[in-house]
């Protein structure tokens, strides 16, 4: 007999033993004389079930997990004899956590072999590209604009407006740049899609190139993502060989090519102008704006800079139509958002759904509450620069404007959960320390303000003139918020001020000996 098995090669799955499980399956099969084919996929995003092993059946895939090396012999015996196994989860597509998602961007992630262009095409890949060729630049731009797609990297700027600006710019050369410098805490969606469905990113960037008249693109990936770098490079070579990159792509009159550039580990290079400086071979320091990158970007040429998830959403928009995409979501937040659940949470992973689900649903229902079993006290949304929300704000819909109205930001869609043992003074201090360490140093509010912030919060922790120092921290935050050149210094006040506002009791002066006795 022969079996087709699927095991993730995603970095998250590999970190908990997926490579060892795949090797053990091969060895156990050889010992038993069983013929198996192991397909190394991306991850389904259910990280608490990794390593996940799926087996192909006439009725669809059946999942088992989490599987360890020690489980392999009994699992293989159960598969060979078609008998039950304790790790059996049932049909993969019927697992409730996966079934309740709306997977548009991540539809293929964990399903296909990310190294196989044929597999990508067999599952609808390059359908958007082919329609784009038939439409032409102006009509593509209209589709992207009508879809309501906004930047998924954090700012939420309308993608169609950005592309239109570059398309209308006059220049002898234009560029497409993919910001894959995913440095926010609790975020891993960019990495997952690059490792699990790299051709999707290539297709989206290629469509962008056709739209604005760019012939060259760069994918800027953080150095901490070696698996993603390898996956993207392999996919680029495969796309070039198949004629989807290079001269006269897909048999058309358009030319577009791509290459990967690896960052040096600077968080600030997630800011678009710092990223451009790094791409040009210089230290990643923020540029003053204007001019905007859309007018004067990479090497001084008009440049489209979008996040991985923004480019990855484009093929669906073109393949299925702007209206189909825009039908998901709420208000000005259209389509779906790949939300990443991390921190002290029972079911950590990637959950893609339409905008509008509440924070409480995500944390309590979908995430299953804390892993420790203690009450949830605080949730940080939007990375290390995101605000801390208490349970009183769990009715907030996951929507750009709804979060902004409550002094928060969605950012890249990362959610980090804390239980009631968290010390919010130290979380506020961490925000300032993070900014001080990662600041490019160009502007004084960020460079000096964050350092003074660490010092002042330490004084509060030590009980020194608490009231006066709290007022000083708030004043310092306002200076950073309105005086910094970029979002690093400008958004650092969000976690600090939200901690002060919603968890003020943590910052209260310690009672005197007499008060304590009373």
Automatic annotation (TrEMBL):
Q: Listed GO molecular functions?
A: 4 iron, 4 sulfur cluster binding; FMN binding; metal ion binding; NADH dehydrogenase (ubiquinone) activity
SUPFAM superfamilies, alphabetized: Nqo1 FMN-binding domain-like (SSF142019), Nqo1 middle domain-like (SSF142984), Nqo1C-terminal domain-like (SSF140490), Thioredoxin-like (SSF52833)
A family per Pfam: NADH_4Fe-4S
What keywords appear on the UniProt entry?
4Fe-4S, Iron, Iron-sulfur, Metal-binding
Q: Where is the NADH-ubiquinone oxidoreductase 51kDa subunit iron-sulphur binding domain?
A: 425-470
Q: Which CDD domains match?
A: TRX_Fd_FDH_beta
Q: Which InterPro entries match?
A: NADH-UbQ_OxRdtase_51kDa_CS, Nuo51_FMN-bd, Nuo51_FMN-bd_sf, Nuop51_4Fe4S-bd, Nuop51_4Fe4S-bd_sf, Thioredoxin-like_sf
Q: Which cofactor does it need?
A: FMN; [4Fe-4S] cluster
Give the family this protein belongs to, as stated in its UniProt record.
Belongs to the complex I 51 kDa subunit family.
Query: What does the UniProt record say this protein does?
Result: NDH-1 shuttles electrons from NADH, via FMN and iron-sulfur (Fe-S) centers, to quinones in the respiratory chain. The immediate electron acceptor for the enzyme in this species is believed to be ubiquinone. Couples the redox reaction to proton translocation (for every two electrons transferred, four hydrogen ions are translocated across the cytoplasmic membrane), and thus conserves the redox energy in a proton gradient.
Question: What is the name of the protein in this document?
Answer: Formate dehydrogenase
User: What taxonomic classification does the UniProt entry list for its organism?
Assistant: Bacteria, Pseudomonadati, Pseudomonadota, Alphaproteobacteria, Hyphomicrobiales
